[in-house]
Sequence to fold (408 residues):
Amino acid sequence: MINFKNIKKEFPILKTKVNGKDLVYLDNAATTQKPKSVINKITEVYENYNANVHRGIYSLSEKSTEMYENTRENIVKFINAKSIKEIVFTRNCTESINLVANSWAKNLCMPGDEIIVSILEHHSNLVPWQEVSKVKGAKLIYVPLLKSGELDMDFFINSFSDRTKLVCVTGMSNVLGIKTDLKRIIKSAHQNNVKVLVDAAQLAGHSIIDVQDLDADFLAFSSHKMLGPTGVGVLYAKEEILEEMYPYIFGGDMIRSVDKENSVYADLPTRFEAGTPNFADIIAFDEALKFLNDIGLENIEKYERNLFLYAKSKLEKMKNLELYIPENHEICGGIISFNVLGVHAHDVASILDQEGICIRAGMLCAQPLVKDFLKENAVARISFYLYNDEEDVEKLVTGLEKVTRIFE
Ligand SMILES: Cc1ncc(COP(=O)(O)O)c(C=O)c1O
Fold:
C-alpha cells in the first residue's frame, strides 16, 4: 500500500502559505509541483557537471551527455517505445505537435485533404492543424461529443474518406477530464490507412501509456505536467515515420556534415533536435519519471479517481453549482470543471485565492469546447495530482461556501 499522505512531504512548495493560508494547489492540469528530488537534480547538474551535450571531448560533457541520453532511455521504457530513435526532445507538448504539423503534415497534405480533430482538443492540438489547413488548403473535421461524454464514434468512423490524412485526438480532456478510447480510435483510423497523433499532455504521468499496445503513430507530452521541470517536451513517433519526416529547425547538432552549399543531417532522433537542448532540465526530468515509477501509475490513477469521486460527491451536495461532469463519469480522471451560479469563474478563482486555494478559471485553452459544447464564456476547474487529498477538497468546499455568501 502506498501512503499518499507521506508523498505531500516531498514537495517543498506545499508547505508555503498563500495569503496567510496553507497552499491548496488544485491547478495540476496547468502545471504540477516538483518533488525535492527533481529540484535537487537541477542544482546537481549546474554544480557538478554543467557542460554542453554531444559536443565536448572531455569528461564533464561526456557525463552530461550520458545523463541526458539516460532520460531518453527511461522515456522509452516509460511509454514502451521500441527505441531511443523514436523519442525527440522538444520544449513542450505544443512544440511536439508543431513539429509533426511542420515536418510531416505540411509536406504531406494537399488541397482538399482532411484532418480529423475532436471538439475536446486544447488549442495546442487545434491551432497547428488550423494552420496546416490554411497553408495547404486542407479541411478540419470536428468529431462531436455525446451527452455521455464519449466522442461520437459513429460520426468519427463515418468521417473517413480517401482524403483523410491524420486524426489528432487528446488522450484526456483538460476541461472535462474525459479519457478517450484511444485504442478504438487508433484501430479505426488504421483500418482507413490514416495516422493518429495523441495529445497525451493530461494522460502522461496519470495513467500507463504503452505506445506499442495503442499502436499510436505520434504521441506528445510535457514534462512540467508530470512532476518534471518546465521547458521539456517529448514527441514519440514511430521510427519509420520519423525517418520520412524532414526537419523544420536547422543548425548545430542536427547535422552529420556541412559543406558551403549543403548539409547531411544527423541520424534519428538528433536530426530533430537542433541547437543546445534544455539538457539540465531533461536530466532532472528523469527524477520525475523515477518518482512516478516508484509509486506506480496504476496506483496514481486509482488514487486520483477516488479523489474525483470524493470531490464529485461533495460538490454535488452544493445547490448553487453547475458541474460539467459527463453522464458516464467512469471515463473521467481527476479533473472537474464547474461554475458557481451567477458568479463569474474569475471571481470564484480570486476569492478562493484569498483562502490559499489555486484553481484555474476561464476558457482553459479550449474555446471551441467551452463556447460550443458547454455554451459558457468561462468555467472554473479543479485538477488533482498525487499530492492532493480529501482535506484539499474540504477546504475547496469551504472556500466555495464563502464565494456563495459573498454573492448572496
Ligand atoms: C490537453 C492539453 N494539450 C496540450 C497542452 C499544452 O501543453 P504545453 O503548454 O505544456 O505545451 C495542454 C496544457 O494545458 C493540455 O492540457
